[in-house]
């Protein structure tokens, strides 16, 4: 961060606590030392493994002390999120989980909306086989709006109020596994905020019938009536 030349307040820093550190009282302090910063903008509990309630308590304590600006969950299902909500003093602001047009998590989103929790998608462009990014529907919309296919998909994420995970330094293995799509996320993010996808019908989640529920390629693709590009 210091080498970037940017002011700390101009950087949004997020990181995670690994399960093996959930019961370490100094886990957050050690993270701050390692990152050489006074605070973390968004701190996640990495996954619901081990004593994740203890890990969440550590994050709550850090939040109350001003060392963390917001706290979130990663890879939690609805039941596990509810467990946190039933016991927490500081509610999670973000859930990081796999979401993309092949795996839209509509019921989970409804649950999160009711509890004022925002989704942050990892794998926002799907897995590494490029099937999603090369879908004909996105190619048509990209041509219509003068954008790339990736920008159309990323806009699909943010238009209804969700967020997505960009590139993380050190994710070389992931970038190779995704066929370089991590780079596509970084490259195409800047161009997604100055237009609206009129034909994606953000108010109608079923507009694009791509959702298979588990991230696998769905052979049949359709549009709601009047929503074709």
Uncertain spans: 168-181, 199-208, 216-229
Average of the residue pLDDT scores: 78
**CATH superfamily placement of one domain:** NADP-dependent oxidoreductase domain
Query: What is the rounded distance between the termini?
Result: 42 Å
Helix content: 25-40%
Structural class: alpha/beta
Q: What is the level-2 CATH architecture name of one domain?
A: Alpha-Beta Barrel
β-strand number = 6
Main beta sheet:
6 strands, parallel
SS element count, helices: 8
The outline comes out as globular
Strand order of the largest sheet: 1-2-3-4-5-6
Strand content: 5-15%
Provide the succession of SSEs.
EHEHEHEHEHHEHH
Class of one domain, according to the CATH hierarchy? Alpha Beta
What would you call the quaternary organization?
A: single chain
Your description of this structure?
- It is a single chain.
- Helices cover 33% and strands 10% of the residues.
- It is an alpha/beta fold and 229 residues long.
- The chain has a domain at 2-128 and 161-193: NADP-dependent oxidoreductase domain (TIM Barrel), CATH 3.20.20.
- The longest helix has 13 residues, at 52-64.
- Residues 168-181, 199-208 and 216-229 have low confidence and may be disordered.
What labels would you give this structure?
229 residues, TIM Barrel, six-stranded parallel sheet, 8 helices, disordered C terminus
């Amino acid at each position: 961060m210091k080498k970037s030349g940017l002011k700390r307040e101009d950087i949004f820093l997020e990181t995670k606590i690994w399960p093996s550190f959930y019961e370490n009282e100094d886990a957050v302090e050690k993270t701050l030392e390692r990152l050489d910063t006074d605070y973390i903008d968004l701190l996640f509990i990495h996954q619901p493994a081990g004593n994740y309630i203890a890990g969440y308590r550590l994050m709550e304590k850090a939040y109350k002390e001003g060392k963390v600006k917001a706290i979130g969950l990663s890879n939690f299902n609805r039941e596990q999120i509810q467990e946190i909500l039933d016991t927490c003093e500081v509610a999670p602001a973000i859930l990081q989980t796999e979401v993309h047009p092949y795996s839209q998590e509509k019921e989970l989103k409804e649950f999160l909306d009711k509890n004022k929790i925002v989704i942050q998608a990892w794998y926002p462009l799907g897995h590494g086989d490029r099937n999603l990014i090369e879908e004909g529907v996105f190619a048509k919309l990209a041509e219509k709006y003068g954008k790339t296919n990736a920008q159309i998909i990323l806009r699909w994420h943010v238009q209804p109020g969700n967020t997505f995970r960009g590139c993380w330094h050190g994710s070389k293995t992931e970038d190779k596994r995704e066929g370089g799509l991590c780079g596509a996320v970084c490259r195409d993010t800047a161009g997604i905020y100055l237009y609206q996808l009129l034909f994606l019908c953000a108010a109608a989640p079923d507009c694009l019938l791509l959702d298979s529920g588990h991230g696998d390629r769905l052979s049949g693709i359709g549009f709601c009536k009047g929503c074709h590009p």
